[in-house]
Specification:
single chain; 482 residues; mainly alpha; three-stranded antiparallel sheet; 20 helices; 74% helix; elongated
Length: 482
């Protein structure tokens, strides 16, 4: 048996005999398993609820009676963001961003009904998911089981006996790290089972699941190497424990919270109220379609009359009111899109800054990879908003086109004073049923893997740093033993 394997076997035997180690491993494995089962169940229930309400919203929109098309524009429609298959593993920003969007004419609403807004404030500190257990609790268990792996043997004099038998310091560090890797494998096992279940039964993309498995394995290996190295470098077991706990608190607890605050300070963005005020100010500059003397729409009317070769709007072959509605929606939607893209750019800068801080915390790196591979990062939410806005604009303009092509200008102008005209401007309900339903298109496999790559590269850098620390610890241990 090689010295590395013999040392690893002896360390595992020590852990197996220690009641505290047995309890810690059993608790974290059980917690990881419960988190996996709970997250998968809650994900399924949430997806079923969203699908059911989406179907109900579609039925209610299609089942509207005969109405004026512009009434349907203001009646609006609800769309719900479908959960990605891997959201059961890492829900990401879903609890904060909301999943329900109300679509209506002349407005671009924000998503609502995020769990944080309607649940206990404890949701802000993390949900019990496989991702949270591995990110926060897994390293802590490795620290408490491995902080004295080498320091304990140095204090007892057993380390000198190893050296006297020809065992090299590097083999001691590798053997201890190998034993801790087995513990890390036990911690990771329930999460791997959950990923396999989500891939086989929930339709998760295998490449994304493999990316998650590789990322979390690398993350735990970083802590394995760091724990073994600090145990070798610290002058005593107590110092090793204090140093490792401090590193864990900084990386897994403080850094994720501070990263958000630093990103907000470094790349601030306007509040919702400030944005709404700015949009209303710019809307007034665009023009008022209800004002007959408005310069822009006066020019628009002249252009329409010239295009059709008539002198009055009453002589147009289409309903001028519908054309006005289409032009007004085009202008306001372009303005909404400008502000939305500006906000997305600010959020992207903030996300980039938070990811850059992954250089001081492996937890930030694995969190970025985890959300990107799971499809629950901020980019996934923005994808939903963009697609929902495109759908909103399409159905509103379709309704406006019905007003322009199916109604006469005379009936539309007199609908409130002439009962017969009011009856004629109500379109057959079959027109609503012809409106296509909203279909969300998730990120492709290539897009998910590309979004996960920066986090994976950061984890690779942390793994190289941990390997370098283990090498330095071996050299120092070798010099101390000689």
């Amino acid at each position: 048996m090689s010295p590395v394997l013999r040392i690893a076997t002896n360390e595992l035997r020590v852990l197996a005999r220690a009641r505290v180690a047995q309890l810690a491993i059993a608790l974290v494995v059980a917690l990881s398993a419960v988190a996996a089962l709970t997250a998968i169940t809650q994900g399924q229930e949430s997806q079923e609820i969203r699908s059911r309400f989406q179907a109900q919203a579609d039925r209610e929109f299609d089942g509207q009676p005969a109405r004026h098309p512009h009434r349907m524009v203001h009646y609006g429609h609800f769309v719900f963001r479908p959960l990605p298959a891997l959201a059961g593993f890492d829900p990401g920003v879903d609890a904060f961003t909301g999943s329900t969007l109300f679509l209506e004419g002349h407005r671009q609403n924000s998503a609502n009904f995020g769990d944080v807004r309607q649940s206990s404030l404890l949701v802000r500190f993390g949900q019990l998911t496989p991702a949270f257990v591995i990110q926060a609790l897994g390293p802590l268990v490795l620290i408490f089981l491995g902080f004295g792996a080498i320091a304990r043997e140095r204090d007892s004099g057993l380390l000198r006996l190893h050296f006297a038998q020809g065992v090299r310091a590097g083999q001691v560090v590798l053997g201890k790290a190998a034993a801790l890797s087995v513990v890390a494998g036990l911690i990771l096992a329930p999460a791997l089972i959950a990923l396999a279940w989500l891939t086989v039964f929930a339709g998760a993309v295998p490449a994304a699941a493999l990316m998650l498995a590789a990322g979390y394995a690398a993350y735990l290996l970083v802590w394995v190497l760091a724990t073994a190295s600090i145990s070798a470098l610290a002058p005593s077991s107590r110092t090793a424990l204090a140093s490792l706990v401090a590193a864990w608190a900084l990386s897994a607890i403080l850094a994720p919270r501070l990263a958000t605050d630093i990103a907000l300070l470094a790349a601030p963005q306007p509040t919702r109220l400030e944005t709404d005020i700015a949009i209303q100010r710019d809307l007034k500059k665009i023009g008022d379609s209800h004002n007959p003397d408005d310069p822009y729409f006066t020019a628009f009317r002249a252009s329409v009359l010239k295009t059709y070769g008539v002198a009055r709007v009453e002589d147009l072959p289409v309903n001028y009111r519908g054309l006005i509605a289409m032009e007004g929606e085009r202008l306001t939607s372009a303005l909404f899109e400008t502000y939305a893209e500006r906000q997305f750019a600010d959020q992207k800068r903030q996300s980039g800054l938070a990811l850059a801080l992954g250089g001081v915390s492996p937890t930030l790196a694995v969190r970025s990879l985890s959300m990107a591979a799971s499809g629950t990062d901020l980019e996934g939410h923005r994808r939903f908003l963009r697609q929902a806005e495109a759908y909103r604009y399409a159905i509103v303009q379709r309704l406006n086109r019905l007003q322009a092509e199916r109604l006469t200008y005379s009936d539309d102008s007199n609908r409130n004073s002439d009962p017969e005209a009011g009856r004629r401007v109500r379109i057959d309900p079959g027109a609503w049923r012809q409106t296509p339903d909203f279909v969300y298109r998730p990120a492709s496999t290539a897009e998910s893997l590309a979004a996960s790559t920066p986090g994976l590269l950061l984890l690779g850098a942390w793994l190289a740093l941990a390997g370098g620390l283990a090498w330095a610890a071996s050299r120092r241990l070798e010099r101390a033993g000689s």
